[in-house]
Structures are given as C-alpha cells and as structure tokens.
C-alpha cells in the first residue's frame, strides 16, 4: 500500500488547498471586517493582510506542490491564529449537531500539519528541496 501514499498526499493537497481558496477569494473584498477584528484586540491593522498569505498564497503553493512543507507550516500557523483571534469564544463550543464549532478550522490546520511532516509526495512541482 505504500505505493499509493503519493496519490494520498496529492488528494490531501488538492482538497485542503482548493477548499481554502474559496475562503481566501471571498476575503479579497471583505478585508475591513478582519482589520476591525484585529484592531479591536490590539493588533495593528496591517496584519489583516496576513489572511492573503494564509488563505491564498499558501494554498496555491500547497496545490502546485512548491515548498509544500513551508507553505503548510505557514497555513497551519494561520489557522491557529484564526482560531484564537476570530473564534476564541467557540473553542470548546458544540454545534447544533454535536460537533465542535471550530472543527472546520481544525481539519484545515491538521491537514496542513500532515503535509508539513510528510511533504507533497512525488506528484508535485518541486520535490528536491527540504521544504518540499
């Protein structure tokens, strides 16, 4: 079964990256809400642009398999920051169906963490660098 692990990494990369890109594209025109949220908790407004790194640039790099480990680490840290800054009141809250309200963020974060430890696999744009 080890021969299929590269296909599994490819499927994980495509799934995590494409689904997150929907969120990133939506934020292209809604950055003011993030700026307000950050300044409300004492962070400088310019940090809101980090959402573009987390939700657009890192997923694109993950998708194409270029510096996947580095992109996955950035993505993971961005998801943790989003969880703590934007969803801190829901960290242990349950949804109406009994799951954690932050489970989607956790799935993204830990999918990225898997890619950080495994790398992109052989179906990637770059496979020779230690950050791939």
Automatic annotation (TrEMBL):
Cellular compartments per GO CC: plasma membrane
Entry keyword annotation includes Cytoplasm: no
Regions crossing the membrane: 7-26, 46-66, 73-93, 105-125
InterPro entries reported in the protein's UniProt record: DoxX (IPR032808), DoxX-like_oxidoreductase (IPR051907)
Subcellular compartments: Cell membrane
UniProtKB keywords: Cell membrane, Membrane, Transmembrane, Transmembrane helix
Membrane topology category: Multi-pass membrane protein
Family membership: Belongs to the DoxX family.
Name this protein carries in UniProt: DoxX family protein
């Amino acid at each position: 079964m080890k021969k299929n692990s590269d296909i599994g990494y490819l499927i994980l990369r495509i799934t995590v990256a494409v689904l997150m890109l929907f969120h990133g594209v939506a934020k292209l025109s809604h950055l003011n809400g993030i700026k307000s949220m950050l300044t409300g908790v004492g962070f400088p407004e310019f940090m809101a642009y980090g959402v573009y790194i987390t939700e657009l640039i890192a997923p694109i790099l993950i998708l194409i398999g270029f510096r996947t480990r580095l992109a996955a680490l950035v993505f993971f840290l961005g998801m943790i920051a989003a969880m703590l800054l934007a969803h801190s009141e829901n960290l242990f809250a349950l949804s109406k169906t009994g799951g954690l309200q932050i489970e989607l963020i956790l799935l993204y974060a830990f999918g990225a963490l898997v890619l950080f430890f495994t790398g992109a696999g052989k179906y990637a744009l770059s496979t020779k660098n230690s950050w791939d």
